[in-house]
Amino acid sequence: MSKPGSSRQQVIVFLVLTFAFSSVFYCMCWYTQQLRGAEGKYAIGLKWCVAFAAMLTLKLNCRKLSDLG
User: Fold this and answer.
1) Residue 34 forms part of a structural domain
2) DSSP 3-state of 69
3) Do the beta carbons of residue 36 and residue 28 sit within 8 Å?
4) Which helix (H) or strand (E) holds 26?
5) DSSP letter at 67?
6) What percent of the chain has pLDDT over 70?
7) Transmembrane ranges (predicted)?
8) Has residue 67 been placed in a domain?
9) What pLDDT is stored for residue 3 in this prediction?
């Protein structure tokens, strides 16, 4: 197994992933000119982007999901 990155590196990875995931939903909001587009599903997608970025950051650093708690 690879060694986990430093805390600073993990935070940077998390922020980049959050930006990458959420940019899709921000583009859709911008295109439709409303956050409530698709009956509020864009806003729900934005909320889940943070969770997916956190889980992927843990996976990339060989850490368990229980480490978040």
Assistant:
1) yes
2) coil
3) no
4) helix 7-32
5) G
6) 87
7) 12-33
8) no
9) 64
